[in-house]
Write a structure and sequence with these properties.
GMP Synthetase, Chain A, domain 3, alpha/beta, seven-stranded mixed β-sheet
Amino acid sequence: MTQAQTAAPAVDESLKALLDEPLIPLPESGRSAHQAGLLAEARSVEAAEGPDAYWAWVAKRLRWIKPWTRVREGGFGDARWFVDGTLNICDNCVDRHAEDPRTAQRLALIWETETGQTRTMTYLELREAVVRCANGLKSLGIGAGDVVALYLPNLPETLVAIHACHRIGAVYTVLFSGFAPDAAALRLQASRARVVFTTDTSPRRGKTVQLLDNIRRAREQAPGVEQVIVVNRGGTALRDGETDYETLLAAQSTDCPCAPVEANAPAFLMFTSGTESKPKGIVHTTAGFLLGSWANVQWQIGLEDDDIYWCATDVGWLTFPIHAIVGGPAHAATLLWYEGSIDFPDRERFYQIAARHKVTRILTAPTVLRMLRATGDEAVRRNPLPELRMISVQGEPLDGESFRWASKTLGRGDLPIINGYGQTETGSTWTYPVAGVDDIKAGSCGRPVPGHCCEIVDEAGQPVADGVKGTLVLTAPFPTLASTIWDDHERYLKTYFQRFPGRYFTADEAVRDQDGHLWVLGRADDVINVAAHRISTMEIESIAAAQSGVADAAVVGVNDAVKGTVPAAFLCLRPGEDVARVTAAVRKAVDAGIGGIARLEKVYICPALPKTRAGKTMRRLLREAAETGMVKGDTTGLDDPGTIDGVLAAVRSAA
């Protein structure tokens, strides 16, 4: 048979349920003629002149100090965008709106903490606080290119401090406030941070977290830190090298022009753990991150002037800087920030927060939908959300059952659920149904939005047919893609561009259906080999989560002396469900959906899965529990450490 006669690969039958999902038309109430017109304009520019022209179209919607001369130089690994141009992120996110009579008195921020305290801040008030903070940083010797770390929860001061860094051209990095001192110290060392913002205490799940104590211990390993600026909520006595935030700002003037920042200058670092011992400091640039965040919020959320937008995640997850620090403010949004756990003292807290502040749009992780589903429909009836217009999720694959439950149960009963996909390195989500325009499928990531081009390829780098899973790669540069790894450009090139030269390697598996929708199946390294058969744990997980009675599910591969690796499922059940019935149904569904080769070796029933504050399931801890009966790995990222006890009890009872 000649190459031209070679049959196309067969559609992967294990993905049949995904590939057969029907298109769900948006309800008329969810459609936006303005959004549709803007999207048509953007797509026509890209169709006529290419992705770079689209990004120039985005750039013209923002304010520049000095215009660029060329949109792009170079390609993957060495691209420079908007050459010779200068701008300032703070100018675009704060000053533009404070200067505009239509938005100066608009609420930029509504803040609530777990203890019930609330504060608000208009764009005019935000600008004054940012200017004072910027001058405070300058008084400490901080200037363009210096690194400032934030070891803070979702506080108003976090928004102020980050835009103060933007204002003077300093580089900021967010340290997840759940990090232990050693983990924080490692990132302070790697970033070369000169100043750290923190708070003395923060409430979390009814307890008081001593953040300043952690930073004091971290500084013992990070001598480069010259000063700690403390949001002193409890009146803690400060030491040498520590400055009270309020005192610092009160001493400053309200005059500090926005510095012109070169388009490709670093704006911030986001450290990821990766598979190597040294965290990767992902670098995002000034123009690239601003443009990408503006576009991300425009297409994924579709804000309107009267919206109250809640990004229900933690500042330590990149989603929060994209939407709640840069992208939302770039649109003059009114943002809700919440400090604390959204399921404490009970899981109805999420509904109560959204109802109290009349939230219209929410972005969160899929696991939050599963948490709400597990709480039961009665909780929804007790806490109706008539103002809610849409929910968007990202960070993990979204199972169809959680999609359908949320869409039919929340809001008015026909709620659009936008599922997006992106990575820390891509700087934004880049494939999803456009809010207010595109029809949806339960759990799909829609189609790539303007400015992004992708392929799904096999091991040899050749594109695969629709219906066949492969590795997802991006085929054209875009400005929001990370520019490098801090202090290690060779690692950047090797990690992301060596596997498939000329393309960006996501390390995620995906499949495209007959309608062009992408289904991201999870990390390629989450594919397990069972008796020489490659199976994605996400495929099994999706089937398990779809079964009646299952509220949340996670599937991991565990070592087996005979088969090499076998799948094990951790399930959380909805209230009142029969354990034996649900367990049998899940086992049967996995066998029927994928085959006996994917048969679950163990099924563990536990009250809750271990999650990060961003809502992502910590599967490595589940794998460790299943294999060893213990959890000794790093748990500093856990939202609720008590979930580990439930997991270990489930493992012991199934032994």
